[in-house]
Amino acid sequence: MEANTKQLAKRLGERIRTLRMDKGLSQEQLGELSGLHTNYVGQIERGEKNLTIESLSKIARSLGIPLEQLFHSVDPLGPETELGRIVMLLSERPVADHSLVLALMKTVFSWEEEKRK
């Protein structure tokens, strides 16, 4: 695998792991639900495998999410930008934390606006 492809596979694997754990599923359970071997699921999550669309579709269906949600935050702006780093940090957190972070950001921005007045 090319370096960029390896990095993308690693980030996608991390995203799948986060979503799986958010659903309270083990690798074995995700494997059963998706019809994929448990070892293959582990390799995907470690970024060792280049996924097919079919496998991605099976995983998304098993997680109960649309296929495109697998790619949310995988490579939004690139890790070299501050916004990209923020998105990467957030993508590594459980989905439940996203609402908390959004509320916190809104509060901080509102506070900053009030301070300027």
Please provide a written account of the structure:
It comes from Brevibacillus panacihumi W25. The protein is mostly helical and 117 residues long. The chain has 2 domains: 72 residues, 434 Repressor (Amino-terminal Domain); 42 residues. Helix 2 crosses helix 4. The protein starts with a helix and ends with a helix.
What topology emerges from the helices and strands here?
Blueprint: H1 3-22, H2 27-34, H3 38-45, H4 53-63, H5 82-91, H6 95-116
Helix pairs in contact: 2-3, 2-4
Q: Could you describe the largest sheet, including whether it forms a barrel?
A: none
Please report the total strand number as a whole number. Answer: 0
How large is the radius of gyration?
17 Å
The 3D shape can be described as elongated
Q: What top-tier CATH class of the largest domain fits best? A: Mainly Alpha
Per CATH, which architecture of the largest domain? Orthogonal Bundle
Poorly predicted regions are none
User: Could you please say which CATH topology of the largest domain applies here?
Assistant: 434 Repressor (Amino-terminal Domain)
Order of helices and strands: HHHHHH
Percentage of residues in strands: under 5%
Helix vs. strand class: mainly alpha
Number of domains: 2
